[in-house]
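STRUCTURE:
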């Protein structure tokens, strides 16, 4: 069959896409890039915030017009099946934890949907970047999060099978291994191991490649902090830490059910930076959480000033179905949240530009990972700083560059 696949959302969803493509190609199906000649259309959905949900529904409406067989997977089928069916009644729903049954669904079979591991299965990669899921679900219950309803409780995959998946990706030419999960720091909490141990095993694989560790929740990261920081010392591991703070106010963090305090966040970042001086820190903040006062918002701004992240992802609170936060009183008016978002963006732009300027005239060993705009390419330093190169160079190659310019979100490098 000719199959069209469209994927959205987090790196975990991108990993599921690679698995889905590998399984389909193994059965001889042809993956195509347009919907018109397709026999089947597959949509990997995301529903983390309201605007993303609306985009998914818009795509479903477009696909419905084709009158082709439509398979919907990703997070929405597990938590919003009725919503999907209201737009595409004939859609075939495949919750993310059962994506390994994709061939049965495409071929019209009716599988039993018994959950199995997603590791050590065929995967297909067509770029140097390999997103690899190391666990499904998480141990947390943040009050605003719909994803843990979609992905379920934590199930860590066996480390030897993850290592096998990395070997497979490297054989296909991949050079950047992106370890992903709903919370990578939760890895192994259900199997008596931890993320640090896994990183040491993957780092021991021979060859020239880099490992990017995905988002870590501060609550679970502190449980195995020593092991994780130790693993970050290996040269193959990007010095990149995605540690979402979400708020700089302890009362709001408690309402979010995050399980840590602002002081604990600061201490954790201090320990990481002490051990990894060239660390790139990425964080997330949610603005306009129910009852958030101006003072509490100011506390978030102050935390950003205190820890000076290299990357700050700003999200306005979005009430999601099934979550406790959806029922909370004290909703913040839209115009207030927009103004807080503007203030935060302005602060973040100043911080990130200043931090990027610190790299001017320095030289770095980079991995060229993907094509950019206007005949440029994007590369990554050992600390995962994004470097735009205007000169021709092969994707997937390593190179030396000198930083000649700095923007708010990236550096500009010249080959040396």
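SEQUENCE:
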């Amino acid at each position: 069959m000719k199959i069209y696949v469209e994927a959205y959302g987090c790196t975990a969803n991108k990993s599921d896409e690679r698995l889905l493509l590998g399984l389909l190609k193994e059965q001889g199906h042809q993956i195509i890039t347009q919907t018109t000649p397709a026999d089947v259309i597959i949509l990997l959905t995301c529903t983390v915030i309201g605007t993303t949900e609306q985009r998914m529904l818009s795509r479903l409406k477009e696909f419905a017009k084709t009158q082709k067989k439509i398979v919907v997977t990703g997070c929405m089928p597990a938590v919003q099946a009725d919503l999907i069916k209201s737009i595409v009644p004939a859609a075939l729903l495949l919750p993310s934890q059962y994506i390994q049954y994709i061939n049965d669904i495409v071929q019209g079979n009716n599988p039993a949907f018994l959950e199995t591991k997603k590791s050590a299965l065929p995967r297909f990669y067509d770029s140097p970047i390999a997103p690899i899921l190391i666990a499904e679900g998480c141990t947390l219950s943040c009050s605003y999060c719909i994803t843990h309803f979609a992905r379920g409780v934590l199930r860590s995959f066996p480390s030897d099978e993850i290592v096998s998946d990395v070997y497979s990706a490297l054989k296909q030419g991949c050079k950047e291994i992106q370890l992903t999960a709903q919370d990578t720091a939760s890895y192994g909490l259900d199997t008596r191991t931890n993320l640090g141990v896994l990183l040491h095993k993957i780092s021991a694989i021979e060859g020239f490649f880099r490992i990017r560790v995905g988002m870590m929740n501060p609550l679970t990261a502190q449980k195995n902090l020593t092991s994780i920081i130790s693993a970050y010392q290996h040269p193959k591991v990007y010095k990149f830490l995605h540690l979402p703070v979400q708020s700089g106010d302890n009362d709001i963090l408690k309402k979010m059910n995050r399980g840590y305090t602002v002081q604990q966040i600061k201490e954790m970042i201090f320990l990481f930076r002490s051990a990894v001086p060239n660390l790139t820190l990425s964080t997330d903040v949610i603005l306009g959480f129910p009852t958030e006062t101006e003072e509490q918002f100011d506390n978030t701004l102050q935390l950003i000033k205190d820890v000076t992240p290299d990357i700050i992802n700003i999200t306005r609170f979005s009430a999601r179905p099934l979550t406790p936060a959806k029922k909370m009183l004290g909703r913040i008016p839209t115009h207030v949240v927009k103004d807080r978002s503007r203030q935060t963006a302005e602060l973040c732009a100043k911080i990130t530009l200043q931090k990027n300027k610190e790299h001017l005239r320095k030289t770095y060993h980079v991995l060229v990972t993907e094509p950019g705009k206007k005949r440029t390419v994007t590369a990554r330093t050992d600390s995962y700083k994004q470097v735009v190169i205007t000169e021709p160079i092969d994707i997937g190659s390593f190179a030396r560059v000198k930083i000649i310019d700095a923007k708010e979100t990236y550096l500009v490098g010249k080959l040396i």
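REMARK: The chain has 14 helices and 18 strands.
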